[in-house]
Design goal:
This protein is an alpha/beta fold and 306 residues long. Helix content is 28%, strand content 30%. Bound molecules: S-adenosylmethionine.
Length: 306
């Protein structure tokens, strides 16, 4: 009820006004952790709708309890990587503010690819924020704030205010308390969007369940697909395993695929029909129908056709 089942949505971007039942402006918090800020903001100002995005299942469970206890109807949660969620679930010019508090800095250069703020994420912000909308970042690490500032300036769509030292957030978060106890400083960076920009999404267009029909299956080729790997510029496909129904009428192919750094794991069915075989994404696969997922179904069908 407080968490949007983003894999069950019929078309993207999500129509947030239908989910909330009003067209109030949207404020998104990325990595809300304990949810202290999001819940307090929602309690104190119900002229906005609030959306929290987290990769931690535990954080999502915890905040849902708080939303329920406080009877809030202006907060929704998404369990997903924010880099994917912001780009795929929000239309151009649809978010008033994106708030990020104390993101993990991934200080070692070999881990830099894990940092939230990369070129693509900032490009996503340049599309999904309203014109004059803001990205508000608080961090305890000055070099991190400087690095993010430079990335916003390089993007060219943002006016970036000087990094300032602050005393405290409007509502203290768990990490704010933690760093305060260690005597660390807090830095605020605000980037304001100043242009109109639209970006291409992975989940645009055709929304059919990916499927292919073939006449005959070469079972040796099917079995030898385990370990198959195919990579192109934006996509990677890896076949991990194959499970067979005892009577040989159905095969489940376990796949990992990646679109522009976004990884999914799911099953593809190879099913005996009255005539021929059907290769299709498993109904309960819980995979977004991205270009890599469509290519997986297409590739398996081509590889195993006799
Ligand atoms: C250091 S904690 C800060 C939590 C909270 N903002 C606070 O101030 O207490 C960073 C949080 O970001 C979440 N996170 C990390 N990468 C994320 C991503 N790509 N998308 C969404 N959440 C993410 C983590 O699960 C974690 O809860």
């Amino acid at each position: 009820m407080y968490q949007v089942n983003t894999k069950e949505i019929k078309s993207y971007p999500i129509e947030w006004n239908k989910i909330f039942g009003n067209s109030n402006k949207l404020i998104v918090e990325v990595g809300f952790g304990g949810g202290e800020l999001l819940v307090n903001l929602a309690q104190h100002n119900n002229n906005y709708n609030y959306i929290g995005i987290e990769t931690s299942l535990t954080s999502c469970h915890k905040i849902k309890k708080k939303i329920f206890q406080n009877n809030l109807n202006n907060v929704q949660i998404i369990l997903e990587d924010a880099k994917f969620a912001l780009r795929e679930f929000f239309s151009d010019n649809s978010i008033n503010k994106v708030i990020v508090n104390f993101p993990c800095p991934w200080p070692k250069s070999k881990h830099a690819k894990n940092r939230l703020f990369d070129e693509k994420f900032i490009d996503t912000l340049s599309s999904v924020l309203e014109v004059d909308g803001e990205l508000i970042l608080t961090t305890d690490i000055f070099w991190y704030a400087s690095d993010v500032k430079e990335k916003f300036l390089n993007n060219g769509c943002f006016e970036v205010k000087n990094i300032s030292e602050i005393n405290q957030l409007p509502f203290k978060t768990r990490y704010e308390k933690k760093w305060e106890n260690e005597g660390r400083k807090k830095y605020l960076l605000i980037a304001q969007k100043r242009c109109e920009k639209s970006i291409k999404r992975l989940l645009e267009g055709d929304f059919d369940l990916p499927h292919e029909k073939i006449k005959n299956v070469n079972f040796d080729k099917l079995q030898s697909l385990v370990g198959f790997k195919k990579s192109s510029k934006n996509k990677t496909i890896v076949i991990k395993d194959i499970y067979t129904k005892l009577d040989g009428s159905k095969y489940l192919v376990k796949v990992f695929s990646e679109d522009e750094g976004y990884i999914q794991s799911y099953f593809v069915n190879v099913i005996k029909m009255k005539e021929g075989w059907l290769v299709k994404l498993d109904d309960i696969a819980k995979a977004y129908r991205t270009p890599a997922v469509k290519e997986v179904v297409n590739t398996i069908a081509k590889e195993i056709e006799n």
